[in-house]
Amino acid sequence: MAGAVALCLGLITGCSFGDGSDPKRAAAQQQRFCAQFGQWQQDIDTPDADSVSGQMAIDAAKVLDREHLDTGGSHILRDTEAAVMYHMQDSGARVAAYCDRAGFETLVG
Predict the structure, then answer these.
(1) What are 70-79's pLDDT values in tens digits?
(2) Other C-beta atoms within 10 Å of 71: how many?
(3) What does DSSP assign to residue 42?
(4) 70 contacts 76 by C-beta, under 8 angstroms
(5) pLDDT at position 3, please?
(6) How far apart are the first and last CA of the chain?
(7) How far apart are CA 47 and CA 71, in angstroms?
(8) Helix residue ranges, H only, 1-109
(9) How many whole angstroms separate alpha carbon 30 and alpha carbon 47?
(10) Which of 58, 52, 51, 16 shows the shortest CA–CA distance to 37?
(11) pLDDT at residue 11 above 70?
(12) Which among 63, 67, 75, 105 could bridge 100 via Cys, Cβ 3.0 to 4.6 Å?
C-alpha cells in the first residue's frame, strides 16, 4: 500500500488515470485541453472566434471528464464551462492551475 501511495505522489498528474488509461494518451489529452483553453483565452475579445474556441475548450474538457483525468479533485468540465460561458475568473484560475499541475502551464495565460 505504501508503495502505491509513493507511486501516486511521484506522478505529475497524480492518481488520475482511473481505468488504467495509457499515461501518454492521458498526457496528450491534457495537453490538447490546455492548448484549447489557452486559445480561448487569446480569442476572448474576438466575438466569433470566442464562441468557436470556447466550444472547443469545453469539448476537450468533456474528454478529460469522461476519462477521469481531473487531478487533485478538480472539476475541470464545470470550471471550463463556467470560465467560457460566464467568464468567471475564479473558474479560469482553477483551469490554469489544473494545466500547471499537468505540466502544461505555458499553454494557458
Answers:
(1) 866 669 999 9
(2) 19
(3) H
(4) yes
(5) 35
(6) 38
(7) 31
(8) 2-10, 23-43, 47-66, 76-86, 89-102
(9) 26
(10) 58
(11) no
(12) 105
Collapsed DSSP state (helix, strand, coil) of residue 62: helix
Give the Cα separation of 31 and 69 in Å (integer). Answer: 12
Amino acid at 89: Q
Question: Which residue shows C-alpha cell 478529460?
Answer: 64
Sequence-distant (6+) residues with CB within 8 A of 107 are 31, 34, 35, 37, 38, 99
Cell of 76: 475541470
- pLDDT digits over 21-72, tens only? 689 999 999 999 999 999 999 988 876 666 899 999 999 999 999 998 886 6
